[in-house]
Amino acid sequence: MPRHFNTAGPCTPEDHYMLPPERRLPDVRALVERQSYFVVHAPRQVGKTTSLLALGKALTAEGRFAAIMVSMEKGAAFPSDIGAAEDAILEGWRSRARRWLPTALQPPPWPEAPPGSRIGAALAAWARACPRPLVVFLDEIDALRDEVLLSVLRQLRDGHPNRPTEFPASLAVVGLRDVRDYKVARDGSDHLGTASPFNIKVRSLTLREFTADEVAELYAQHTADTGQRFDDAAVARVFELTRGQPWLVNALADVITTELARDTAQTITVDHVERAKQTLFDRQETHLDSLADRLREPRIRAIIEPMLAGGTPGVLPEDDVRFAIDLGLVRQSDAGGLEIANPMYREVVVRYLLVSPRAALPRIERTWLDADGHLLPARLLDAWLSFWRQHGESMQGAATYHEVAAQLVLMAFLHRVANGGGTVDREYAIGRGRMDLLLRHGDDRLAIEVKTWRDGDKKNPLAQGLAQFDAYLAGLGLDTGWLVVFDQRSTAAPIDVRTRSERAETPDGRSVTVVWC
After folding, report:
1. Do residues 513 and 505 lie in contact, with contact meaning Cβ atoms separated by under 8 Å?
2. What is the torsional sign of CA 147, 152, 153, 154?
3. What domains, with CATH codes, occur in the chain?
4. Which is it for the CA torsion 82, 88, 93, 94, positive or negative?
5. Cβ neighbours of residue 274 under 8 Å, at least 6 residues apart?
6. What is the side-by-side strand order in the sheet with 444-453?
7. What is the pLDDT of residues 261-299, one digit of tens each?
């Protein structure tokens, strides 16, 4: 079977296009050599399992260690029965060892031990029987919760002083989160908030994403196998959309090569990338859907809501910020502050939040197109003003994030405009002071900058908005657009009075439409 782009499960070099797995975890081998216990955490489907399976196989083949990755996930079926969870985990370990280790390195029969000590007893027996230092990577550790999880971590900590002959010489716990964010219901919180049950860790590592050169390297493997080429602009667009997130990089290429450009004589272009992106959104792939599901969590909402508004949140707990970053949902921007990790995730966030507003959107006559299907901005403006006067207040109640309800209603309206013939691009981040939108309909483009005037703002945001809009328009190569200002002050005039439009000029002399809502 020819190799392909993998989007589910670990990669294998015989079946999948893949990069050298140790490249993104360069420090793990040194930690193993130093007999360290450590943490590897990263979002789902970025290559943790692939990398550590390959490292375990390599370490074992080199002859100095018996190294293996085993899973803790079977224990999750027994959230309140420590003994049953341990038995399920150990059964899985034995099966994994038969597959990955030579007979001489496989574990002995597990010793009898009371609940709460079976994992430690098993690791001790295995380390004593093994003719080489034992190295164990415990995958899916954060599938466990509460007392089962705490019991396992404490057993690892208790056995740590006995390494390397009476306990694994080196050990890693591997999961989505760092230890502090493991799911443990305690003290009114749903996460641990401390590393103390595993305070033997030397380091916490995470996998970096692909670089632009690595995306090109991965795609070049497909070209080498099939002769089908990704043009340079397509590769650059993939990196721009994904910022190297491995699942996204593979998923876009998989859709393109298996559905959109099956003929390997066909060169893959930016158009293929854009169509593949839309396909992934429309399918609501599990990876993207699970990411969006995080938006319900209060500590994630506390970060994302002000980000959408372009404002600055109050004091955010350090653990919450680190948790959002560890999930792969946000990143520290080059300019400072937080932003959504990549443009595709940015779209996923908004699409999730638009579900309720779009469902509540009433029927709107499509008066904004001419006979040839081109966008008529003046008619679109009339349609928006009429819609906002009639439905603005009631529609805001359908939004999940109330602080940005007005922005979500506008985006729901623009999605209706774009439906079937266009897209809506968005840019937002903490501290930007605005949200930037770009409505694309065929060859037509309409740039929209969104500002909000709230209680406590000392100045009318118009002057700042006009200056900011200049830079946005210049970047797009456009001379005009809409500056939408939502007046959310408690002293604002009624919606039917304040909703209007007027012409204004930016500092650089661009004539724009200011839309007061």
Report:
1. no
2. positive
3. 21-205 (3.40.50.300), 212-283 (1.10.8), 354-516 (no CATH)
4. positive
5. 237
6. 422-427, 435-441, 444-453, 482-487, 511-516, 500-505
7. 999 999 999 999 999 999 998 887 788 888 788 888 888
Angle, helices 270-283/246-255, rounded to nearest 10 degrees = 110
Measured between alpha carbons, how far is 275 from 255 in angstroms, rounded to an integer?
A: 9
Count of all residues that appear for the chain in the document: 517
Q: What does the pLDDT average to over 126-131?
A: 97
Tokens linked to 264: 């390997």
d(CA 400, CA 358): 12
Asked if residue 226 lies in contact with residue 264, where contact means CB atoms within 8 angstroms, the answer is yes
CB atoms within 10 A of CB 99: 8
Q: Residue 295's closest CA among 397, 192, 399?
A: 399
pLDDT, residue 188, reads 47
448 Cα distance to chain centroid: 26
Count Cβ atoms below 10 Å from residue 112 Cβ, excluding itself. 7
- DSSP structure class, residue 233: H
Q: What is the 3-state secondary structure (H, E, C) of 356-377?
A: HHHHHCCCCCCCCECCCCCECH
- 20 CB-near residues (< 8 Å, 6+ apart): none
Query: With b meaning 16 or more CB within 10 Å and e meaning fewer, what string describes 495-515?
Result: beebbebeebebeeebebbbb
Q: Could you tell me which of 29, 37, 12 has the C-alpha nearest to residue 160?
A: 37
For 509, half-sphere exposure in the C-beta direction (CA atoms, 13 angstrom radius) is 0
Q: What is the pLDDT of residues 459-485, one digit of tens each?
A: 999 999 999 999 999 999 999 999 999
CA atoms of 199 and 142, how far apart (whole Å): 16
Q: Are 207 and 173 in contact (CB under 8 A)?
A: no
Q: Is 393 exposed, middle or buried (0-12, 13-18, 19+ CB in 10 A)?
A: middle
Using CA atoms, how far residue 450 sits from 209, 323, 395, 464, in Å, is: 31, 29, 18, 12
Note the Cα 138 to chain centre separation in Å: 23
Reduced to 3 states, what is the DSSP secondary structure of residue 421?
coil
Name the E strands within 255-392: 330-332, 338-340
Which residues touch 159 (CB under 8 Å, ≥6 apart)?
120, 123, 124, 166, 167, 168
Distance CA(261)–CA(228), nearest Å, equals: 9
Calculate what percentage of the chain has a pLDDT beyond 70.
96
pTM, entire model: 0.85
3-state secondary structure of 432: coil
- Contact of 435 with 447, CB cutoff 8 Å: no
Three-class secondary structure of residue 457 per DSSP = coil
Token pair in block for residue 401? 């994030």
Could you identify the residue written with the tokens 């793990």?
A: 28
Distance CA 498, CA 42 (A): 48
Amino acid at 236: A
Beta carbons within 10 angstroms of residue 351's beta carbon: 17
Q: How large is the C-alpha radius of gyration of the chain?
A: 27
Q: With the C-alpha atoms ordered 248, 249, 255, 258, is the resulting torsion angle positive or negative?
A: negative
